Amino acid sequence: GKVAMKGKARGSKNANNKLREFIASYNGIDFSLPYELAYTGLSHEMLDKYIKDSQDLYGDRNLYISQIGPTIGTHAGPGTLAFFFYGKEKTDY
Hints:
The protein is 38% helix and 12% strand. The protein is α+β, with helices and mostly antiparallel strands.
């Protein structure tokens, strides 16, 4: 696989909508495989707000959270939120 940026959005509402569209295009999140939320330069209040606003995506699962390191963070910039996941397989029944 490759790591690639799939989009940018300004503002938490636009970012959340874009993320939801992207997840839907992969038929949802396959929680049997690794997933993680990563961030740069966010206050914990902003991170907690995102998690609360997105609770319906993750349910009661443990959400693994890490900080993005300085090499990637320098390119991504402060306030970046990234969600890494595997999509569910699409079927054509």
